[in-house]
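**Reference record**
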Amino acid sequence: MIKGLFLFLTLVSSSFAFGQAKKNDGTLKLWYNRPAANWNEALPIGNGRLGAMVFGEPANEQLQLNEETIWSGGPNSNITAESGAAVPELRKLLFEGKFEDAQAIADVKMFPKKNSGMIYQPAGNLNLKFDGHEKATNYYRDLNIEKAVATVTYELAGVKYKREIFSSFTDQVMILRLTADKPGKITFNATMNSEQSGGLKTENGKLILSGITTDHEGEKGQIKFESQVKVIADGGNASLQHNAWTVKNANSATVYVSIATNFKNYKDVSGNAGLKAASFLDKAVKKNYVSALADHIKFYQQYFNRVKFNIGVNEAVNKPTDLRIAEFAKTNDPHLTALYFQFGRYLLISSSQPGNQPPTLQGIWNDKMLAPWDSKYTININTEMNYWPAEVTNLSELHDPLFKMLKDLSVTGRETARVMYGAKGWVTHHNTDLWRITGPVDRPYAGLWPMGGNWLSQHLWDHYMFTGDQAFLKEYYPVLKGACEFYLDVLQEEPTNKWLVVAPSNSPENTYVPGKRVSIAAGTTMDNQLLFDLFTKTGKAAEILNLDSDFRQVLKTTIGRLAPMQIGKHSQLQEWMHDSDRPDDKHRHVSHLYGLYPGNQISPSRTPKLFDAARTSLTYRGDPATGWSMGWKVNFWARFLDGNHAYKLITDQLKLVGGRIDGVSTTGGGTYPNMFDAHPPFQIDGNFGCTAGIAEMLLQSHDGAIHLLPALPDNWPSGEITGLVARGGYVIDMTWSNNKITQLKIKSKNGGNCRLRLNTDMKMNTAQFSAGNGVNPNPFYETPVVKPPLISPLAKLNPVGVKAAKEYDFKTEAGKEYTFKLN
């Protein structure tokens, strides 16, 4: 224990030493020495519902504003009677091997006849003008992600000015506090503008911007919103005139921004935006600023402080964040990795609160009326990736918005199942939006993929595996069962092997006919993996809940007829039912490795041949990718137990895009100066995916045990992380030195037998343990039994080359903590 304690003190003291040397210490801050020149340099604040991008210009402060329910269009369904007319013809062509003909038919007959989803849109901007502040000096701005507060400071004419900005979780307004170190120095004008249709007025002592969202693809804009602003000044004078707040010679001023809409749910927009906005604002202004800030920080930290991550600090911590990103590849800046990891958690806390909407492709931050990909929910990878960090990084409650959306989709998706496929149950394709559309979106090349609801449904079982919450499982079992009912109705027997497969479908956004844009397929590997997981997990849920014994048997029988994973002629895991993979395919999606991550069907010990083949596939696919794809690959290489390759992808991710660093290249994919993922453009899933990947390098619990430091890179020889969560409800704190764990504490939320997997010997000082006996020790560790892979006679498999690990079992009681001493 002394050795571990020494390491902990060393890490803490090194951070403290830098903190004494300069003001920018090991605190988790994004900080800069100049204002944001564009949106990708501005800093995000959010409370789950309200978001803003803070630019920090001394003379002209801009807060670009968002509210999560400001979307174009209104309640609608994008399914028509003819939507599925070509499905039987497509199945026939696919099973005859006429793939190009099938694609041609799909392109003509399956294009959406209504709309491809609505657009998430901005509310507008709050603009504050400070005359004469253009000549400010000693400029500094930051985003403190330990407190969820953005700060701007500068000096002018011997006066020090400070701005604090946050989106209050507790008061549901955005608050901007303006102060100076001398009295009577706060003078400014504040107004609002928006690209939305509407107007600006003053009423009841407030500045009010009202608007209505746009029409889009035949759907009339129906979201009405109001942004209300009130200023409270200490000293001086604050008045409303000419549709602006004017503050003169105040000692300090506090600006409150409240935004609300008429949205009630996906089929009801009968709310009163003005009354809702006013109710938040009128209550917020009655609370003093110190209390409002303290309440906000306390609420936020109940989530954020659950996980601490420290892998050291070096001199790079004293440089602005954009420069640290630009130099990351050569400085090996460990603190920046920890900052990036925690920034992902910050973004999830700030964009996904219980009772709210899930984060879109851009979270809750979007400045464009016509956003990239409409800033919808892309559910053939991106929305799922948004929630990969939720359970393992101890933010389980924040999964709630996704679950609520799944409930909605399980209702709206019944019409699509019936009309398009003549099936029971529910289905949705590769995109949805605020209005919970479930029909195909965009061209069939990407959109004719009826597996989106299936993949989203996996999160329900994952949540149960981490929490053991049977009440939750019972509540959402109908969603799982309805998804299964759809596939039981639509599965088709393919003619060669008599396997049951989904047709038509695709392997998301990839092609398989050389030189042709052909994606429409039958029985793709990802589809088969998703079906295996959905049927298996739903059957287990029904067994746990003691429900539907006959239905469970149907699922079991159907699982036995699903197509197995196959190893093709290039020793690769096949992406399609036919051996159509190309070693030179560098596509950003690596969908057939779903079974490796986030699934758990591929394992070095249980399925070594599939493990080798999957690794071969990923090696062929290569590292260069869009931002979110790099995040996914970090998780893949962590599951391959290759920490150095995973770290290489983190280095690729932390490459500056679009910055203003002298003498440093800032082109290509990676990370924007404000730490947003650069697809490009910005997509938040890249941030979430990489945060999940870093956690996966340190802790895995999908393969029959809790594997500690499974993919530790050489660059992190010593470190400490507390608060990660393993399946079964085990909260893990661990410290390591020289690549070996020195201290370990485990809190068992649910009790039961705990199995640890690690590469070092250990001694436990509070309980008895035994060598792992090879039997699943806990139902939360239960691993799937997959069919043996079909292997091409041309395949040449590589040895797995995975280091042997030791396993230890010990009994736990719910609510108790267990401390380990490791040699």
